[in-house]
Amino acid sequence: MSGSSPSERLGLHRSLLTSQLLQASATVLAAAATLILGQIRDVTLFLTGAGIIFACAALVVLTAREALPSWLVLAAPVIDIVAIGVMRESAPVAGIGLLWAFPAMWLGSVYGIAGVVGVTAAASAIITYQAFDEAQRIAASTFVLPFTLAALATMAHFAARRTRAQRSLLEDQSAELRRSLERSRRQGDLVTEVLDAVDFGVIRITAEGEYAVSNEAHARLQASADPLAPSSAAFSADGITPLDPDETPLARARSGEVFEGELVWYGVPGEDRRALNVTARRLPSHDGFDSGSVVVSRDVTAEELALRAREDLVASVSHELRTPLTSIIGYLELALDDDGLAPATREQLEIAERNATRLRELVADILAMSAASRHGVGFALNPAVADVAEIVESAVTSAAPRAATHGIRIDATDVRACPAVVDAHRLRQVVDNLLSNAVKYNHRDGVVTVSVGREDDTVVISVADDGQGISANEQGRIFERFFRADEVRNSSVHGSGLGLAISRDIVRAHGGDISVRSKPGAGSVFTVRLPQKGGAAPWSSTR
Q: Over the chain, what is the mean pLDDT?
């Protein structure tokens, strides 16, 4: 008892108290019935035994549960056994021995096998002793009663052991649950600390569209560009087109939409405003229930302002260069028209004219890219019905002389007539660029194969070369602005890295797309796919 926990002492006291009270109640009932039936042989002895049982029960009741002495746990049932024996001695035929069931069950549940053996031996000894009394008669109960007491004590023992095992299991499960809750709490605190440490805003939206969790960075972004406030002025990626309240990223995320890298400006143009790059993704569902979504926002104001400043500078410089270049090329052409030029002078002027023309083409590419902002294409298309084959054949004719000087043959035998609704001027620009690259990056005596065909309602233009090819790592970036492969940058082949970017924008403006298939050392194949009936008309969209 001294090493027991407070909960164990409380349970033991409660169990002993219950047993004593039930036994005292049964004793009262037995005494009343015995008195009424006149089966008491010695009243004094009978009342002495009953009084001992009541006194023992009172002692247990009056003992504080925290101060329950260890001796009382064993003494109480032992005293009860003796007291019941005294009552049985004074009333041999009253069946008082049945009261032994209470201490027998108590001793069996608390002391196990030792209690079963002890209570059986004690009851058997008393019954055997009383059997030699002339007033006692040997009956079936003389043999059955000890066995019954042993059976009851054994059942109580197994029931108590099973109860203790279940209690131990529950305590282990409770301890494991507490440990799990503590781990979960620590993990939650760690996630909160990590979210508060990052410099991008995170907000979780429930399946019902409610805001559940947000971090400190999100609060900081709210302070500068309050995206949650309905009155905040929000603009699309160009910074000019206003967005309706239900078109803002958070409103779209609340409606269940998923998007990646949406750029939104908060604040009226001309004032202190912020640009946020916002991404919304769905959270994985559990057990078939919608877990909602998470929205991540990042402040990209400095980046966007720097990019716009660069674009403005490039556009300004390009405009300033175009006028003198046009004048230079015009005067060079006039000078070359003079038939009296010396061969050496003509050669030098032709070199100057070629370089000035290349510089003008570079400036034209830069101006075209500056006209198409980083977030939207500003090409104004003028679509009309035209034969794509004629446009391609015209481009092939123009590229043939330059290809011939490099010993490259252009094969256009697979060009089929394909009428479509396109901007002939812009599409010619795309084909010219693809042919120019195919010739520029091909080897001497190489072949450029051009084809035009139709697949269902799609016009397919293909330009293939057998040149040096493009590595797999660089194919993903080949359509980026100003990108040039490492091998090309280290060669004598000149370029701005803008042609393919411009071509992709033009093709997409038509509602189509352009792709590349290449293998180093085995050439490249560029494929343009256009809707035959035309895509978007004058087109401007956010990429």
A: 78
Query: Which residue(s) pair with 266 in the sheet?
Result: 234, 274
Cβ atoms of 373 and 315 within 8 Å: the answer is: no
SS3 label, residue 102: helix
The partner residues of 282 in beta bridges, in order of sequence, read 293
pLDDT in the model for residue 543: 31
- Whether residue 146 contacts residue 123, with contact meaning beta carbons closer than 8 Å, is answered with yes
Provide the β-strand partners of residue 526.
463, 516
The per-residue DSSP string of 192-239 comes to HHHHHHSSSEEEEE-TTS-EEEE-HHHHHHHHHH-TT-TTS-EE-TTS
Structure tokens at 33: 């019935």
Please answer whether residues 325 and 360 qualify as being in contact, where contact means their C-beta atoms are separated by less than 8 angstroms: yes
Q: How far is CA 335 from the centre of its chain?
A: 69
- Rounded CA-CA distance 237/543 in Å is 9
Angle 453-457-458 (CA atoms, 0-180°, nearest 5)? 50
pLDDT tens for 146-182 read: 888 888 888 888 888 888 888 889 888 988 998 988 8
Q: Counting beta carbons within 10 angstroms of the beta carbon of residue 47, is it exposed (0 to 12), middle (13 to 18) or buried (19 or more)?
A: middle
CA dist 429 and 205 (Å) reads: 47
Q: For the segment 104-119, what is each residue's pLDDT rounded down to a tens digit?
A: 888 888 888 888 888 8
